[in-house]
Amino acid sequence: MIKFAGFGRTLAVTLIVSAGLAGAVKAQDVTDAQIKAARAAIDAIGATSRFDSILPGLAARVKATFVQASPNHEQEINAVVDEQALALAPRRADLEKEAATIYAKTFTQDELKAIADFYGSAVGKKLLSDGPIATREVMKAAEIWASGVDRDLRTQSGDKLDKMLGAKPAEGGDAQPQQ
Q1: Which of 4, 48, 73, 144 pairs with 88 at a CA distance of 20 to 30 A?
Q2: Buried b (16+ CB within 10 A) or exposed e, 118-146
Q3: C-alpha angle 104-53-114 in degrees, rounded to nearest 5
Q4: Who's near 112: CB < 8 A, 6+ residues apart?
Q5: Per-residue b/e over 30-60, b at no fewer than 16 CB within 10 Å?
């Protein structure tokens, strides 16, 4: 299997705009020093690495479409699409440039240096690798906690209301008259 490393500027700009990032960026020119600091921060956090699978995914879809239309030419289709995808791979630099410009406009040079320093440190790298796992576990714990609090709030409130009013509210919150 061939591994690709990028995709075109048009798709990168479309993704950035559709994600709403372009609107958050202040309109201003950036210096070479800001771009350099932004690239260091982007590299440290892997800001664009999640897009590495876009070109291979696009190539696979194009191959599938072409093969479906001409199943007897699968070998030729695969060769041509792979060749063209590899030719487009250098355009990955367009995404890096766009991302660096966005970061340079969003953060100060000092902030970018601090981001790069932190995420370049052992603890920053650990946060990047283990942070999503910890976040997922915290979300699970929060769901369990919320279920317990919901259960206890309903039970305790219902018991107290039963003593006060002589009737517990129904599950929907409406009090049920005692007969």
Answers
A1: 73
A2: ebeeeebeeeeeeeeeeeeeeeeeeeeee
A3: 25
A4: 34, 37, 38, 40, 41, 103, 104
A5: beeebbebbbbbbbbbebbeebbebbbebbe
Distances (CA, A) of 162 to 10, 151, 179: 64, 16, 13
At 169, is the secondary structure helix, strand, or coil? strand
For 160, residues 6+ apart whose C-beta sits below 8 A from its C-beta are: none
Partners of 175 in the β-ladder: 169
Q: How many other CB atoms are found less than 10 A from the CB of residue 69?
A: 9
- The pLDDT of residue 170: 67
Question: Tell me, what's the pLDDT at 168?
Answer: 67
Q: What are the tens digits of pLDDT across the range 107-152?
A: 999 999 999 999 999 999 999 999 999 999 999 999 999 999 999 9
**What residues have CB less than 8 Å from 39, skipping those under 6 apart?**
96, 100
Tell me the C-alpha distance between 95 and 12, whole Å: 6
Residue closest to 52 by CA, chosen among 79, 91, 14, 81 = 91
**% of the chain with per-residue pLDDT over 70:** 78
